[in-house]
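G., the chain you wanted modeled:
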Amino acid sequence: MTDTPKVRLRGLYKIFGPNHKDMMQHVRAGMGKPELLEQHKHVLGLQDINVDMMAGEITVVMGLSGSGKSTLIRHLNRLIDPTAGEIIVDGVDVMGLSDDALRKMRQEKMSMVFQKFALLPHRSVLQNAAMALEVQGVDEKTRTAEGMKWLARVGLDGYEHHYPAQLSGGMQQRVGIARALTANTDIMLMDEAFSALDPLIRTDMQNLLLELQAELHKTIVFITHDLDEALKLADHLVILKDGAVIQQGEPQGILMNPSDPYIEDFVSDINRSRVLRVQSVMQPLKGTKFAGDVDIRANLESLIARSEGDTSLHYRVMDGDVAVGELHMRDLVKALVPRISSAA
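Predicted structure as tokens:
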């Protein structure tokens, strides 16, 4: 990883309608989404988006229906062109690319995993997985070997000659992930990739993605409307409302310090003990006597079970073999109480 963003969005706006360029003057003057629709019959899809997506991290963009999250991800590979703003990928302005250069970027730099799987029903699992390399003109032997490798990696070894209709929804989505991995792109775009799956299968897919990410360090942009999923997957979390970024940052920080009443309401019902990590609650190391050691990445739920609810205990926090802080159970209990919305 480096300090230079893999993807940088600057001043990104999208207005849907026949006179979208002319509408920018109203939006820049402060007109919001409801007023623009009512007065000018145009839809404000994105409003002044400024986000840095770092190499090797999972950036999760979340929001309710109509917040602009799917519109945003489609700007990265220019399936949608912005009304204004910059889209910079590896230092290159995507808006300045020729048709050939844009096509090459889509084939070689970005792959996409869709909510509805988007598998070709008349092609086998292996043919679907290797399709991106076929489009790139890679020879059959090489693309078959790559497709087989990634199908095995996502747990579909032995299913290569099946067809999509013969697979469950979760297995079909595994094919979609294998296809994206076979493309060997630096960036993976995942638009509501798991939201059509049953809860247990969805959890399995989240765990698979995290397992793969720990090994491959892709730059992943993941779209979801589910806060639990966002908090589980995100290195960097971006929350949208009505096309604008309400808050962004490290997920644990957002959960502990929501900056807006909308965010406070959003996180109020979350199971904080399952989501919050020891690192978010710990204090600098001062004591010498502890009830035991706890890993910095452990969730608070595991520590509650370990302490059997004894709020007098405190633990030494470890990052591997290094002591990095301490956690008192009284601080843990305080962290479990969400901030009361100032809008209440």
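The first strand starts at residue 5 and ends at 16.

Shout if anything looks off.
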